[in-house]
Structure formats: C-alpha cells, structure tokens
Amino acid sequence: MIPRFALPLALAALCAAPAAAQPPTMAQLWPNDDGRSWRYNQHYEEYDTPEVVDNQVRLFFDGTTTASGGVQTQYLREEFVSGSSTAPRLANAALASIRDPLMRTVWMARPDLRSRIERTAAESPCPSVGLAGSYALLLGGEFAWLRSVTDVSAWRCNLANTRSWQWLSSNLAIGSTFTLQLIPDLASDVLLRGTVAAIEPSNVPAGTFQDCVRVDYVVDYGQSECTDEAGNPVGPYRSETRGYVRFAPNVGPVESSEQFIPSVEGVACGPWQVGEPASLITMKLSSLPVPALPTSWGKLKVAYR
Known about the structure:
Layout: H1 7-16, H2 26-29, E1 36-46, E2 51-67, E3 71-83, H3 93-96, H4 101-109, H5 114-123, E4 143-147, E5 151-155, E6 163-169, E7 177-181, E8 191-204, E9 207-227, E10 233-248, E11 252-266, E12 279-291, H6 297-300
Antiparallel strand pairs: 1-2, 1-12, 2-3, 3-4, 4-5, 5-6, 7-8, 8-9, 9-10, 10-11, 11-12
C-alpha cells in the first residue's frame, strides 16, 4: 500500500514523465506530396563477372496517372543523375529489351518463363520507358504508386487491378508480415514477403536518421529446373532476392540493400554454389528530400511497371 502522503508525489512523477513515442504511420514513412524528390547513391556489384557500378539516381513524384483497370495513382518517376549509366546485364540481348528490374531478375531465376517474359516485354512493355543505370529492385521508380488505408503499393500498367509491388502495410508493429503474389499472369509461385523487422537508425551520406522502420523483403522466385550444357535436367533449384529498406519518419526511404541469390536450395545451377549471392545493390540517400521543379511530364506520360 502506498502511504497517503506519497500519493501526490507519485502522481506528480507520472505527470512529469514524457509521453510514450507514438509509432509512425505509413504517411510519415513515405511523404508523397507532388514534386518531392529523393537522390540516392546507387552501388552495384556483380560477383561472377566481376562488375562494379556507382552512380546517382533520383526518385520523385511527378503528377498523377491511371493504372490499368482505372486505379488512380501517383507517378513515381526515376531518372539518372550522374556516374555510370550502363544498363545492367546487357551482355544478353534478350535482357536488353526487359525494362523492369523485377522481370530481368525473374528472367535469370526462371528459365521456364523466359520466352513469355520476352514476348510480354515486346508486346506490352511495362514500364514503357527503360532507365539505363537503374539496378535496384527494392527501391526504384517508374511506378504507379498508391498509398491506401491498408498499404503502400505499385500497380501494374498492363494487367488490370493488380499490384506489381508492395513496400509497406498499415500494420507497422515489429514482426508483422505481408505477402503479395507477383506476376500472377506468368506464374503462381513468385511471391514477395515483407516483415517489419526493427526500429533503428540509418547512417547515410544525407545524415543520420533516428527511429527508421526497417522492412525486410524476400522475393521467392519459385522452383525451376537446372539443365546442363546439353539440355539434360540435373535437378531443381530455387532463387531469392533478399534485402531491406529503411524508412525515416517524415523523410521517406533513406536506404536499401539487396542481394540476388540464384540458388538458395536445391542443386548448384551455374557458376554459383547453393546459398552464394550473385550480386549486391545498395541505395543510400545522398541529400535531404527537396521539391522538384513543376513539370507536366507525369501528366502526359504513363511509364511504370
């Protein structure tokens, strides 16, 4: 029992204690006023070649657009700023025609889907404008971007009422998860899984940002069959992209990192051992977000995946 004389002191201490920090909202984690701009240092390493590319890209909201099926969205545009503008993995002629980083990676992970991916890229490319020098899958542009009450997602431009990607869910509690089926028109087993992993700082060239929400992502490309040089099957394998994005409250995405692992289980297919990553891509915010100059490009051009 608390002594009667101690009650006023206890109440005073409670009143003086600072209020508990409120968890961020999706709106705080990715501000979306039109013209807002983020510039990133992008670093790409391919381990087998080897190849290293460093450049700068910019993401910014550029007006509104309508996704397939009539979904009203914003246009999240991406542009090359400086450094090397070499397009990724263009040693293969088929990959040169695929403008979407996700579809390029699916092409590598799933030989059984390559002919359909190439046909889709030729007949109904999405996005319709490719960006040379864009490598990142987890944090990029050329999207029909939409924040709803349930999530922050991108929408397909060539398949009605279908999300092409998801960055956030409205449930931002640590440990919460979401799953999205990717490219349902091509395969049923290519899945995106997201997990709210931590609240932590991020130290990038633009500064140190506290209380960032880190979301971990896994893209499971499903099972494929490995063949030898003569075309004989040698066993199944499965590939993944693994990485994260850190979102700073009232700033937006400040950092991402991802690795493509061509064989996470099954047989070793190609030059990599099972579980050995083939590439690394990082994006780090290089300057504080600033408004972009007014432009009508986004109102005239629809170019997203």
